[in-house]
Amino acid sequence: QVQLVESGGGLVQVGGALRLSCTASESIFSGNVMGWYRQAPGKQRELVARMFSSSSTTYADSVKGRFTISGDNAKNTIYLQMNSLKPEDTAVYYCNKVDPWARVYWGQGTQVTVSS
Questions:
Q1: Using CB atoms within 10 A of its CB, is residue 81 exposed (0-12), middle (13-18) or buried (19+)?
Q2: What is the pLDDT of residues 27-56, one digit of tens each?
Q3: Sign of CA dihedral 7, 70, 65, 43
Q4: Of 31, 32, 29, nearest to 74 (Cα)?
Q5: Residue 32 to residue 80: CA distance in whole angstroms
Q6: What is the number of other CB atoms lying within 10 angstroms of the CB of residue 115?
Q7: 90-114: per-residue pLDDT in tens?
Q8: What is the CA radius of gyration of the chain?
């Protein structure tokens, strides 16, 4: 069973930065799609960023230019660097993996709160 463990969430002021980490129990590449999603209270879970390989990434329009997804295959870890945070970035952030057989895995989530 694949396990994804997130860390790095917390409380930050508007304009601040946080880096989230997600450590997987197995390789993060090798044909997997790794991503970050978020869910704010009363809203649907939405895609934040995905990486198909170390050089292929996509972002939601709302975070482009502020967030960066990256990965370290040697550590089985992906990161989400979040800069210039806004109150609307407040949500529970989830790590996601889709393997080559389209099986989907989720982490337990980490809370990010941006205060004004």
A1: middle
A2: 887 888 999 999 999 999 999 999 987 679
A3: negative
A4: 29
A5: 17
A6: 11
A7: 999 999 999 999 999 999 999 999 9
A8: 13
